[in-house]
């Protein structure tokens, strides 16, 4: 699955998924603003995922 497909799925997602993504971006954006590593670990269906915010448009403190 490529980025375009993922972005398309998110654009067409139901409201609870969009709410989850908004909460996720808010949490990671706050971590970035507070100069913390903007990443979260998540367990889902037996998988261990790590989600990291690389860039946030309009953010004055960009970290990569």
Query: Structural class of the secondary elements?
Result: alpha+beta
Total helical segments: 2
Sheet-strand content, in percent, reads: 15-25%
What sort of overall outline do the alpha carbons produce when their principal axes are compared?
A: globular
Written as H for each helix and E for each strand, in order along the chain, the element string is HHEE
* Percentage of residues assigned to helices: 40-55%
The number of distinct structural domains comes to 1
Instruction: Please give the alpha-carbon distance between the first and last residues.
Output: 24 Å
- Main beta sheet, described? 2 strands, antiparallel
Q: What topology, given as strand order, has the largest sheet?
A: 1-2
Parts with pLDDT < 50 across at least 5 consecutive residues: none
What is the number of beta strands?
A: 2
Mean pLDDT: 88
Radius of gyration: 13 Å
Structure description:
The structure is a single chain. The model has no long low-confidence stretch (mean pLDDT 88). The protein is built from two helices and two strands. The two termini are 24 Å apart. 44% of the residues lie in helices and 19% in strands. The protein has a two-stranded antiparallel sheet. It has one domain. The chain has 64 residues and is of the alpha+beta class.
């Amino acid at each position: 699955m490529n980025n375009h497909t993922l972005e398309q799925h998110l654009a067409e997602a139901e409201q609870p998924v969009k709410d989850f993504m908004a909460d996720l971006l808010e949490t990671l954006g706050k971590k970035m603003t507070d100069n913390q590593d903007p990443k979260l670990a998540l367990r889902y269906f037996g998988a261990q995922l790590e989600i990291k915010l690389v860039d946030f448009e309009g953010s004055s403190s960009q970290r990569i």
